[in-house]
Amino acid sequence: MAENHVSTTNACKMCTPMGASLAFRGVKGSMPFIHGSQGCATYMRRYIISHFREPADIASSSLGEKHAVFGGAPNLKKGILNVTEKYNPEMIGIASTCLTETIGDDLKMITTEFLSEFADLDLPHLVTVSTPSYSGTHLNGWKLAVRSMIEKFAGSSPALTADNTINIFPNFLSPADIRLLSGIFREYGLKTMILPNISDTLDSPSWEEYINIPEGGTSVNEIALAHRSGASIEFGYFHKGESAGSYLEENFSVKNYNLLPPVGMRATDALLSAIEEITGLERPQRFVNERGRLIDALVDGHKYINFKKALVYGDEDFVVSMVSFLCETGVKPVIAASGGKADLRKRIEAICEGFCPCPLVLEDSDFDTIEIAAADIKPDLMIGNSKGFKISKKLGIPLIRAGFPIHDRFGGQRIITTGYEGALSLLDLIVNTAITTLQEETRVGYGYM
Amino acid sequence: MTLSILKERKDQVVERINGNETVSCSRESLAGAVSQRACVFCGSRVVLYPIADALHLIHGPIGCAAYTWDIRGALSSGPELHRLSFSTDLRERDIIFGGEKKLEAALDELITRHNPKAAFVYSTCIVGIIGDDLGAVCRKMTELKKIPVIPVQSEGFKGSKREGYFAACKAMFTLVGTGKPENISPVSVNILGDFNLAGEIWIIRDYLKKMGVEVVANITGDGRVDDIRRCHGAALNLVQCSGATLDLAKMMKEKFNIPFLRVSYLGIEDMAESLYIVADHFSHIDKDIEEKTRQLVKTELEQIMPEIKKIREELNGKKAAIYVGGAFKAFSLVKAFRRIGMSVVLVGSQTGTDEDYRELAKITDPGTVIVDDSNPRELSDFIVKKGVDVFVGGVKERPIAYKLGVAFCDHNHERKIALEGFTGMLNFAREIHNSVTSPVWKFHPARLSRVEEKSSEVCCG
Fold first, then answer.
1. Domains along chain A?
2. Residues of chain A contacting residue B85, judged by C-beta atoms under 8 Å apart
3. Are B192 and B166 in a shared domain?
4. pTM of the model
5. What residues make up the domain containing B18?
């Protein structure tokens, strides 16, 4: 079994400002801005572009040596002005870095100062979030950015009468998943405020001419009305101070439903039940049919995959929701690993209850530890992002790619995992992976099944 | 040409008129300009990383290690320790109490586990601020673990990639001269500034072998610590690229009196010229070397030219844009494009020098836009206004091209296809041809609107 190493080898996580920059991408007319040295923004852009294959402009205050000594405020202000001039954004989402947190730059103070200094100009909204990369992972950065936007805007418009809009805090799902989720709510005839909504901004059509900031995303005006929505639904695990849904519940009595990301049967059931509880609406026939088709497929495929052992890794919410789905298929999750921390063991135990034994849970882990565990436990398949490819190759375990980042395959932004449809698509992949192995390893051929 | 260039960047962009233009450069990136540049750490990391039997430990929070894990896939013919990503993964308490203890423990554990020939310890932004004494920890661990443990002073904010190159050269230079330079031919070189992307250094080594030239050390593609330790025994240094390793060559010239030649392995002219100057350098020792080189070039050209000529017929008259990290590569690319019948209408780099840009102004055609430290907004404008058919750049430039309906060739350090050498020139031509001739552009809205504009120009006379 893995020793407890001091160092990290092949990280299974990214840094906090990365998540914040991505979340800021899901707001209409929004420009992410990293307050730190130039490299941070560039590295993240490169990482993001490789997955989404989309332009991913992230501005930087490009701090140099003298700013690190005397403070980064002047460059931050200059940067905001330049971004405003060139991109004409409606909002700039500013995330701090390890450098600027450590030298003591206070983003809130600097931006307040800035707004009063340039009060005569027509300036974009400025949202700030504290994301030192020595604290938490990209997923924490994502959640903190969402929370900061809600804190900043919700309630800033006068509270009209409550309406039946539902706030959705989807967390880090693919653009295709976000489209799929909004389709679910549309089917019920519901209005939604999805924050962030990266479905178009990080998966945009071809352009006819240059576009400053990709179209789409939820507007600041919509966010400003989040406090009068009928309810909030948020997916994933939130540390204290991270949940936008809780904030709205505590401050504006908008009931918050904290759910598992809707991957698989049970989690999708829970989502639909929550929607129905909130609205009193009946389940549309479409979902009854989709659910039926999923059950039908689970039955059709079960013999190929029952008792297959799976290694699941990635961000903490991805891991828990994927384990939940696998349990339902008969695939036995044997290792559930994440670079993040989210009370994983307790939650995974609860999810596996009644289905399978709790897998080995690795929290705050890295790919080196995962590899040692995998060599020992010998899973039949792996599910996770591209960065597990080396283990997959070395140990000869087929890898089903999902999550972020997908750097070594095409179409990462279009992978769906949510809803009955997403479950079905995942199931096809898993069953076909098992059949491919059988076809390769036996002489049977599997020509007719 | 009216373009959306921020006022403070105006003199970093020029349109070539008579070839005497200069471009303002070597400045800190402008805040909020969305520069394509990276940082000091990045510069050091890319230069040292291909040394395959060394441990590369990044001292800092996780991001810097996560985003550079095997990012460039530099190939090794042996050990592959460089393809792992090691980090001290600093947390809040390390920032408060200092990271030295954790660094020490990490080095101890990693050197024991992986048994490397040397260890490079990279400093990141935060380390510069919390004041960890990297040098002291490295000295201590050198003694304890009996291998060179070398600090790389690469705090991200202390400049751009170029300062990172220098820090890397300084780190490598501590190794040079510590090995025994025995049994080395008088006709011998070190290859500096090639990182063995897609196996490129093997192509170059093969040419040199055919010329009878011994290669002592690859610096750093497919590099080995022991080779670098004895590389002061080589007779000549060949320095490629925009100065990533030029500083090392200068240090070696000063201390060991080893001369260096600047070379480029990109494109037919520069590749051949590079081999000829090496032959010339050694002709007083090996009287056959020049003939061998001529033969080599002839054979290689015979193999690639028929196909290149065919490709040229299809690409003739098309327009190219180049935006790369270092300007030196751009010189070769301008020539390579001419070779396939294309003209370069935009050329720029992240970190070019004054000298580089003067040279670019000299070799480009009138009307070419030359730009330093550009950004997506400017590049997009240039592409559209100049009617570019193909863009050569890196992953960060790719979506700019594709969104605007322009073909693309990845010529950055992440490329998967060898573009050096004569074979590399053929690959390059094929790459350009492959993208430019795709039917997908027929559907692209930006291309369609371009066609409309053109036809309206024609009808309006």
1. 16-153 (3.40.50.1980), 166-205+214-282 (3.40.50.1980), 286-441 (3.40.50.1980)
2. 9-11
3. no
4. 0.95
5. 7-27+316-455
